[in-house]
Amino acid sequence: MPGPRPVPTPVPGAGLPWRPPATPRHGTPGPGPGRPLLRHYPVEAPVGESHRVRRVAAGIAHSHVPRVPPALLHVAARAGPLESPWIAAGFVAMLLASVAVVVWRHRLAAARQREQREHGVTLAAPRLRWLRRGGLAVWLTSLATLSGLAGLNTYVGYVPTLPALFGSLPGSAAASPGSGGSQVVKIAIDAPQLGMRPSGAYVYLPPGYGARSNRSHRYPVVYLLHGYPGGPVDWFRGAHLQQIMDAMIADGLARPMILVAPAASGGWLHDSEMLNQVGGPQVETYLTSMVVHVIDSRFRTVASRSGRAVGGMSSGGYGALNLGLRHQDSYSVILSMMPYGTPGNVTATLLGGSRALWLANSPDDYIPTMRFRHPMAVDLLAGPHDQELGEAWRLARMLRDRGQPAVFTEVAGAGHTWRGVRLEIPYALAFASNHLSGGRPAAARVPLARGQPVHAGTPVDERRLSVA
Question: What are the distances in angstroms from CA 314 to CA 15, 158, 236, 415?
């Protein structure tokens, strides 16, 4: 099955300042520029079906439900060829067939040996038996490993295509520095003084960034933290970030922003929880100081808290929430997908056994009493197939109780995987676009009512929000 369809480049109007588009109806041109809302998505997309979203927070919802076209969600959620369950099934079938052949050959050999013994024939042991057994063990182990990895990829969605398996980013081949389209560049941000291993960050530059007419234009930045296990490339390989952001900019669902995916764990298999480890890597300082400084110095950014958002998924969702609240002078928006409210069982492994450090990095514990120096716009997102659904709702309610403009977004069909991120990231990016410097003005607050679901594409002034 083909991956998400790349958005044609260059995008018309990419060199112009972003303005909120007129609100169009489903699948029809809006009254503004006259562009069809769904023009970049396949005609077979289920335009008629809605993607259910609920925003809940302590009796009051802040901001509006982003009108993300169902066609965009359909394309974003579409699985790549390497995510097909038939690949895992094929490896499992090969494994079972190989085991069956081994058992059959063993039984046949045993029967022959019995027959030869009955006739008084003694045969020499087969030559190189150890080599054949070793090769068989390697073959069966490889099939078992490939079956497990293929099954994991089918469920989680780390690698959607064969080129992605070998390091190619989906959509990156279509863009070039002079094309006017978006670019994804990889830069090194090393900090040996912080105990961080050499690592790179992937930076998305929106369409028109390199245009001569935009030389003086500065862009807000969204920092995105990956989960564990994983790395920064997962945002572009597993979450289809470039294609989704291109489409949202082209259809006026988000304004041009720089997206940065740094290495947030100090290694693919190192679970840092984005903390300053006692006697180890200082990941929090690296992300909130070093990475921000390098991005502001190398790219045309809005270099203030009003132009910065920090987001993430799973452990990155926890990290975004914790870092954003602890560094309010650096960020004004938090996008926490699949979040949890504590760093988990890391007191001994990362924090030197310090209960005080654990509590200081647990939003569950410090939100009720912390000091808010600035308003923090927070979107906590989860899906019905995510065990963190209730946690996201509870954290949003805690923040609302402290007077912060926090919302809870439930995205139908999303689970605790990169495939779930593909469904949630359009809402998160729209939220960031609305709240970062230069974005759309915040919508009026709407009281909540029970039992009335809100669907994506339904303005909040037409339907009440649900608490279910």
Answer: 35, 14, 16, 11
Q: What is the pLDDT of residues 423-463, one digit of tens each?
A: 899 999 999 999 998 543 333 333 322 232 333 332 222 22
Report d(CA 398, CA 428) in Å as an integer.
Answer: 20
Q: Which residue type, as a one-letter code, is found at position 345?
A: N
pLDDT the model gives residue 426: 92
Provide CB contacts within 8 A for 279, sequence distance 6+. 352
- For β-strands 406-411 and 52-55, DSSP reports them as antiparallel
Q: Which pLDDT score is estimated for 439?
A: 40
Q: What is the mean pLDDT of residues 217-236?
A: 91
CB 375 within 8 A of CB 405: yes
Distance separating alpha carbons of residues 390 and 183, to the nearest angstrom: 37
Q: Are 305 and 374 in contact (CB under 8 A)?
A: yes
SS3 of 434, please? helix
What are the pLDDT digits (tens) for 333-385?
A: 999 999 999 998 888 788 988 999 999 999 999 999 999 999 999 999 999 88
Res 206: pLDDT: 94
| Confidence bin at 23 (pLDDT 50/70/90) | very low
> Is the pLDDT at 291 greater than 90, yes or no?
yes
What number is the average pLDDT over the span 235-254? 88
Strands 333-337 and 377-382: parallel
Close Cβ partners of 248 (under 8 Å, ≥ 6 residues apart): 72, 254, 426, 429, 430
Helices 418-435 and 70-77 sit at what angle, rounded to 10 degrees? 140
What is the model's pLDDT at position 102? 78
pTM of the model: 0.72
**Three-state secondary structure call for residue 224:** strand
Question: Which value, to the nearest 10 degrees, does the dihedral of the CA atoms of residues 263, 267, 269, 273 take?
Answer: -50
CA distance 57 to 398: 8
DSSP state of 352: T
Q: Please, are residues 217 and 438 in contact by the beta-carbon 8 Å criterion?
A: no
For residue 36, the cross-strand partners are 29
Q: CA 98 from chain center: how many Å?
A: 37
**Complete edge-to-edge strand list for the sheet that includes strand 258-261:** 183-188, 200-205, 258-261, 221-225, 308-313, 333-337, 377-382, 406-411, 52-55, 454-455
Instruction: Report CA dihedral (95, 100, 103, 108) to the nearest 10 degrees.
Output: -140
